Every structure is written in structure tokens, then in C-alpha cells.
Amino acid sequence: MTTVNAATNLSTADTRQASGRREGVVLILGSSLTIMGAVMIAPILPKLGAEFGPLNPHADLLVPLAVTGPALAIALCAPLAGWLADRIGRKALLVIATLLYALLGVTPVILGDLQSIVVVRLLFGCAEAAVMTCCSTLIADYWHGGERLRYINRQMVTIGLVGALFFVVGGALGEYSWRLPFLLYLLPLLLVPAMLKVLWEPARSQPSTVAQDAERVAVWPLVLGYLLIFGGMVLTFIAPVQVPILLVQLGITSSTLMGLAAGLSLISTLGGSLAWPLLRRTLKGAGTNTVLLLLFALGLWLLTRAQSYNEVALAMVLHGLGAGLLVPNVMAPVMEALTARTRGRGLGGLTACLYLGQFVSPLVVAALVVYAGDLRHAIQWLACASLAAAVLWGVAGVSRLRSVI
Fold first, then answer.
1. In terms of DSSP H, where are the helices of 40-113?
2. Where are the beta strands (DSSP E) in 101-170?
3. How many domains in the chain?
């Protein structure tokens, strides 16, 4: 009888492991929708400005909002999405949000005025908030410990691949028409049947869940994670928004080359994401934060000194390596700081800070330009700020190491 029971348990474990892999694929692909939200249309900003600029006196403000507006909507809606995920469940909300993501994403193809495009993009951001929050929450629900870290890492690697691919594809399609990249937002419809079939709603009455609910939220790691993801995304979003402007200043106006330059930063996030597990094991969280902030500082500094396309590309590679380390190194301790019942809201807050950083990035740069004099000097100031933050994290890491010893 013992042998039979052992064989049954082993079979059940194998089934769950196989199911976990399928669920992981669906959630990782679902997470990649979030990077598609902005990168596909960033290379067409000059074309949007050229078409609507002469017709709209506020085009200088509205055109960037077509890219950054969804980030504002996500920042505002992600906490609500997290609350809904905790209250009504993750799976149903994820499926509905994915459908809305596709429909709202493609709508600008048929619109003829800039204001309508911006409004639709804001609504699109609301759907995107729910997609990202639900995917991250389900990853935290389905896996724990080292397995969770592996899926976080795979999530970041896939996001880097998808982001780089669609940045280049969006730039190439933008050569023919600014409307064409929006058609790519129909692709997530292919993912909905897999979400319905593979994903399952986590049980809320499991003993492990009750034990986790008895714990309290670790507030300090949560606050540090929120602050770091906010500041890091201010630095990260310089690549898709400001690099095309710097390339135009160098006399490079091809949207394909603009897409390739920022795409290099995105694909370089793969290197950071792949290196993250090793760095975290050897340098711990604070040491890894130091490295990623140093990479941000170096990449941005070189960007401001670049005089050719190749020099811009090198800066984007270093910048992307730092960006690849950022999200997993923040997400892992934030997930650990949350309990099962607060996971949706806590990760919704993280998503809000992430996209709030994206939204304010061009506003921060614009404000700094007023005092610094030009775009290059403004980015240099941000590079110095990143260097200062790296020093603080380095000191914190050394102090913690000494206290352990």
C-alpha cells in the first residue's frame, strides 16, 4: 500500500510540474504584452508629429503622450487592478484585460485626430495595468522560493526579447505608415484561449496560504522596492523617448535606425536578466543594485558624449544591461515581503511605481533641460544622480556584510 501511495504522489507531483511549465509559458508571454505597450510606437513619434503637428497647436505635448500616456493610466489603475485581483480573482480579470488590451491597442488605426488617439491610449493603459498585475501576482501564487526566482528571471528574459523584436518591427512598419505598428496589438488575441485552458485560480483556503496570511507585510523592503523601481524606470525610459531626439540631432532620421538603437537597449536587458541570478547569489540584493545603477550611470554618460551612431549603440548596450537587472532584483524581495492576501495590492503598487516612473521620465528630463540648458546636460545630471544612488547602495551592502561577519 505504501508503494502504491508513493507512486500516486510521485505521479501527482510530475503532473503538477508539467502543468506548471505550461502555466509559466502563458504567464511569461502575457507579461511580455506590457513591453509591447510602448516600444512598438516609440519609433513613429517623428511621423506622428509630422502628420498632426501642423493641425494641432498642442502636438508637442500630445505626441509624447501617445507613448507615455498609457504609463500614467497604468500608474493610476494598477492599485485598483491589484485590489480587484485580490477580491474577485486573478484569472478572469487577466482574460478580460487581455481582450481589452488588444481591442484598444489596435483602435488608433481607424482614428483621425490626435486627441482621440491619446484618449484611447490612456484606456489601453488601464487594460495593460490589469494584465501586468495579474501575471506577476499569479507567478507569485504558483511558485515559491528558488522556483519563483527562476520564473521571474524567465519573465524578464522574455520581456527583453519581445521588446527588442517589436521595437525593430514597429520601426520597420513605421517606415511605411505610422498606423501599421498598431495592428500588431491584435496578436495578444492568440493568447486568450491558452489563458482560459491552462491557468487556474489559486485556492484561498490552503494551509500554506493561511500561514502566510498570519505574517505581517515587511514594510521597509516594500518601500525601498517602490522607490528603486520608480527611479530606475525614470532612467530606463530615457532610451525609447530621448534617444530618437539625440539621433535626429546627429542627423539620423530613419525610424528603422531609431528602433534599432533603442532596441539594442532592450535586447541588452537579456544580458542583465541572464546575469542576475549569479550576481544576486554573489553580491546579494544591495550589491546587485549597486551594479545596475553604475551601469545606468555609465550608459547615460556615454550617451551624452556620443558623436556617432556606433557610440550611441554602445551606450544603449550598457544602459540595457542595467535595466535588465532592475526589475527582477526589485520584484523578488517585494514578492517575499507580501502575504498571500496582500499580494495583488502590493504588486499593483509596484506596477504603479514602475509605470509612474516611465510617465514622469520625459517630464523630469524636460524640467532638467530648463536648468541644465540642453538635453545632453540634463541626461548627464541624471547619470550623476544614478552614480550617487549606486554609492549609497554600495555603502549599505558593505555595512550589512560587516554586520553579518
1. 45-52, 59-88, 91-106
2. none
3. 1
**Those residues with Cβ within 8 angstroms of residue 135's Cβ, 6 or more apart along the chain or in another chain:** 27, 30, 31, 94, 155
Which residue, 307, 330, 327, 310, is CA-closest to 264? Answer: 310
Q: What is the pLDDT of residues 301-350, one digit of tens each?
A: 999 999 999 999 999 999 999 998 998 999 989 988 888 788 889 999 99
List all residues 6 or more positions away from 119 whose beta carbon is below 8 Å from its beta carbon.
none
Query: What is the C-alpha separation between 14 and 5, in angstroms, rounded?
Result: 14
pLDDT at residue 401, as a whole number: 66
Residue 31: CATH number of its domain: 1.20.1250.20
Note the pLDDT tens digit of each residue in 39-86: 677 677 778 778 877 777 777 778 877 877 888 899 999 999 999 998
Residue 8, in any domain of the structure = no
Work out the end-to-end distance of the chain between its first and last CA atoms, rounded to an integer number of angstroms. Answer: 51
Whether 75 and 348 have beta carbons less than 8 Å apart is answered as no
| Whole-structure pTM value | 0.80
In the numeric block, the cell 505608415 is attached to 177
Q: Is residue 135 within 8 Å of 94, Cβ to Cβ?
A: yes
Q: Within a domain: residue 5?
A: no
Q: Cell 503538477 maps to which residue?
A: 16
Cell of residue 23, nine digits: 502555466
Answer positive or negative: Cα dihedral of 276, 282, 285, 290. negative
Distance CA 289, CA 384 (A): 16
CA proximity to 156, closest of 41, 355, 294, 326: 326
Rounded distance between C-alpha atoms, residue 138 and residue 178, angstroms: 35
Range of the domain at 244: 21-199+218-400
